[in-house]
Amino acid sequence: MILLGLSPGETRIYKDKVRKRGRTLMILFLASLLLFPLVYLLFGAGWVPARPRYNRDLEMPVAMVQTAGGIGTAFLYNETELLTARHVVEDMEVGEEVTLTFSNADPPITTTARIVWKDPDTSPPGDINYYLNDVARLELIQPTDLPEDFPRLYLGDSDGITARTPVVLIGYPDGNSSTTTGTISNEEAMGADIFQLDVSAYPGNSGGPLITEDTEEVIGILIAGRTEEFQGINFAIKVNNID
Predict the structure, then answer these.
(1) Does 166-241 carry CATH code 2.40.10.10?
(2) What is the pLDDT of residues 211-231, one digit of tens each?
(3) What is the model's pTM?
(4) Fold of 56-145
């Protein structure tokens, strides 16, 4: 039996082409069947780590600060010290103690810290210098309350950070752990060298770290936000401006 219209030699050539094409299609079909399990092994099983929108470990070293005056946020930036906004501990003196709760640790950890430094600027609230110097440092009283491998945040470089840079803000609005994402909306604000943010923040977020999604480093500390009709406009001091 031969294919109509072809000579015996042409028929053999045609059949060879059909067989080759069939083998190619079969190889492609088998490859497609293997593709899904290969992708699963690479990413689902952890052979190649897939990068999340943000690293959940960024939340663990962020603590709720409780004082007689209210609630704020602080974050661990070395083995024993934390940074926060000065107004979180405004009515307290250097040497006094605050309660810290690392709610995102597993299990949550409650400990205490001592105020070891407050920016000495005496500008009244509302003055731009008040916001430019709104920083305080805390030190753990019992560092052993945290596990040896407890994560910490790393201070980055706020110079060169431009508008539309994706960022993560972590804090404790109303005492509840919160992680929100957004962007830097302006590299300067209120006529000063501070970030303006398009990131949700509320009372209790003060002192929380502003982290770049790209490098996962702290580039700012939340210090203030607008209220009422301008709610949603928030501000952070740049880490390069912290003494």
Answers:
(1) yes
(2) 999 999 999 999 987 665 556
(3) 0.76
(4) Thrombin, subunit H (2.40.10)
